Hints:
- 74% of the residues lie in helices and 0% in strands.
- Helix 1 crosses helix 6 and helix 9 packs antiparallel against helix 10.
- The longest helix is centred in the C-terminal third of the chain and has 29 residues.
- It starts with a helix and ends with a helix.
Amino acid sequence: MNKRDATETKARILSTSEKIFSEVGFDKARVDDVANEAGVNKALIDYYLKSKDEILETLFSGLVEDARRMLVKSMEKTPDVINGDNYKALFDAYIHFVMEKRKILKVAIAESVKTSSGLSVVMELGNLIINAEIDSIRKAYELKGLYFPEDKKEMLVMEFFTGLMPFLCFALFKDQWESYYHMSEKELCENFYQAFKKTHLAAHLPR
């Protein structure tokens, strides 16, 4: 198998695993089912990804790296965010990301709430906020008009519970919310945005 075919096969295995993990849960998912749906031999999965745990670790690592890239890209494309409705561009980028990643986010949250979890990728996503690699992004946001607490613990708490978690909940419950409360996607997104501005964004305004 050439390098291109190998890359495509591994990507198909990961994509299929993400789908099955999100549908039945990681614990109930079987590598045999992944192999059958991906159309590959189980031995090939064992060759690329040694175990079901390694598949999950690879998916989670990809999620964190994609989140890091999204933060950098959205920051670079966004003008100052406190004038007019410029923050909407950032908000839309975050919404797009969590909806695109909703399958693996569902798995991540389910695994993170386990008492014995050693793969708390939700904590990893929160850690991006204060990670040294992301410090330059924070400074760039400050130049665009956002305020951040000097105390990193305060900043992490604020970003995790009022910034990150609302978006994760949106990805998890969007469809149920629209159905239960008879609300269109457009209405839900607009109301979520207005609520987010009055809570999270308000905490970032210059003091």
